Amino acid sequence: MADTSRPDHLPNLRPDREPPHPSWLPKQRRGITPQMIGRYPDYDVLETTDSWDDATKKVVLARLEPPGPLRFFGPDEEPCLRAFCDTVLAQDREPRVPVPESVDSKLADGRLDGYQYADMPDDRDTWRLVLRGLDETASRRYGKSSFADADPDTREAIIDQFSQGDLDGGAWERLNVKRAWSVCMRMTLSGFYSHPWAWNEIGFGGPAYPRGFMRLGGATGPASAREPFETPGATDEDPVRVVQDGEL
Question: What is the C-alpha separation between 220 and 153, in angstroms, rounded?
Answer without folding.
Answer: 35
